[in-house]
Design goal:
Elements lengths: L4 H5 L10 H6 L7 E4 L2 E4 L7 E3 L5 H11 L4 E6 L8 E12 L12 E3 L4 H11 L14 E6 L2 E8 L6 E9 L8 H15 L3 E7 L3 H10 L2 E4 L2 E6 L42
Amino acid sequence: MAPDWDTLTATDVAHPLDNPVWAALAGTHRDYAEVVGRAARYLPDANPFAALADPADPRAWADLAALVGPGREVWLTGLPTPPEGWETVRSIPGVQLDGSAVRAEADPEAVRLGPADVAEMLELVRLTEPGPFAPRTVELGTYLGIRRGGRLVAMAGERMRPPGWSEISAVCTRPDHRGEGLAGRLVRAVAAAVRERGDVPFLHAAAANTGAIRLYRSMGFVLRREPVFIGLRTPGVAPETSPGGAGADPAPPSGDAGIPVRENGFQGTGKGHTR
């Protein structure tokens, strides 16, 4: 559907990281936005998240319901309180980490990943469950990987890009290559690409993923806020659809359709990306 850019740009949020999905869709990621009134979402094959211009505005919730359709699932971040009729499917406490003080540096072993690498990236995501990653997520920013013996063993990249900021995401390492420091190296390398553009890196992580948070804090990331990643079902009954057909729910924020969201599944389950 055609985005309503006047509505999308109009927001009263004091800081772009207070509503990062909205800020990103109103700016750098406009080409990936679907918009109805005061609600917007990413194209489902790029990112499962949606946003409201003002979560306290009942009109924004009505717009989101119209955008998503009846009986459909949608993911938000922040501390939204849905109106009556909405069902909470999943709620995952999280943290938002500011990387202003992180030491960023390029890595000579890191290679740029692109659409031709998506099959390998999805395979790595299935194995490690680092968080939301879909077939077109690679288009949202710079993705870097490390190969050993021709096989992709670690990667990291950018997802949401609010004005002046960039979220480092999909940080993951094959279990048989943990303990080699690949995750930290790639985070610093992606941060270097972000800084070169004049932006500041930041991260989201599930609060339960203490191993990842410990790693990021050791690198200089600091806690900024504690959002909740919340999966909601819109009011009404979804029409009958074939799996994956028109009107079907987007893939959950887990890496790929068919990989369930776990309580610590945002920015890693701890299975394959820390250290």
